[in-house]
Amino acid sequence: MRKTAFIIPIIALVSSYGFISAQTLFDGQKAFSAMLKHNGGSPEQFINEYTYRFNNKNYNALQDDEFEQAKTISGLKSEVESINNENEYFIASVSAFGKYNFEKAAFEFAPFTEETNIEILGNVFSYRLTTNTNISLRFNNGTEISSLPMPYEKANYLVKMRKDKRTGHVDRKVHLKIYFNLTDIVEIEDVTDTKKKITLFANITHIEAYENSEYLTVPLANISTTYQVKKESEKAKAQEEKNKKPDEINAVNNLNTYLHHENVDKELKAKLMKTAIEHYTE
Q1: Cβ–Cβ < 8 Å for 93, 12
Q2: Is residue 198 located within the same domain as residue 265?
Q3: Which member of 61, 116, 117, 119 has the lowest number of beta carbons within 10 Å of its beta carbon?
């Protein structure tokens, strides 16, 4: 896959705040597990780096204890297995909106370019590690986000509230929760024998924009994507088909019962049942 420049035009905030810990925050540990899942890496190969990063206080104690290492490897394997492209993850981020478009009733807002990489996990500095992985995230549909929808009255109030009384400057920063699904695509770049840059690719489902980093208020705006709309449409269609199935089965069973009680000729019964099954399964 084509290599691209590593840029971060928005700030990735992946600290685990208490108020979002119950949700699926895509933090460094999740990113590490996703890297192993999609890169096909062996937990045994990366166990030293994993322990150094996420259980550093016990790193030395685990080096010569094969039982504890086996226990840690087992836990990592479980984490890797839990990574699923159907799971919805999110990261917290910061970006800024532009001027208000009165015709579209939305602020200009383009937080992503085609080459925007959001670093989730940086390299560590340790001579003891045989692997050293930098992991970033890139959105396939990031450039689709081009506006921050908001009604006129609300937008006007936001600008007035954010305006500095002395300078007239408007603070246009917003805090984001970006929800997404991972894909199987991964880009790998060997930096040195031990260092790698891994880029995981994902599709944004939707974005919530907030006034501040506490995320406790109602979102200022919600941004959906065509990917989300398509996914929800497919889900609704699948549910509709699932709901129809019991009725179809009942109809065929009822016909079978009726024909049995009416002592219908065996050959005719088989023909009628075949026609009914074909009708309900077409």
Answers
A1: yes
A2: no
A3: 61
43 part of a folded domain: yes
CB of 26 closer than 8 Å to CB of 90: yes
- For residue 105, list its beta bridge partners: none
CA distance 4 to 120: 17
Counting beta carbons within 10 angstroms of the beta carbon of residue 105, is it exposed (0 to 12), middle (13 to 18) or buried (19 or more)? middle
User: Strand, coil or helix: what is 15?
Assistant: coil
CA nearest neighbour of 121 among 195, 205, 45: 195
User: Does one domain contain both 132 and 247?
Assistant: no
Answer yes or no: are the C-beta atoms of 218 and 154 closer than 8 Å.
Answer: no
Contact 187, 117 (CB under 8 A): no
Tens digits of residue pLDDT in 145-192: 999 999 999 999 999 999 999 999 999 999 999 999 999 999 999 988
What are 111's two structure tokens?
Answer: 């937080």
Q: Mind listing the pLDDT tens digit for each residue in 111-146?
A: 999 999 999 999 998 888 989 999 999 999 999 999
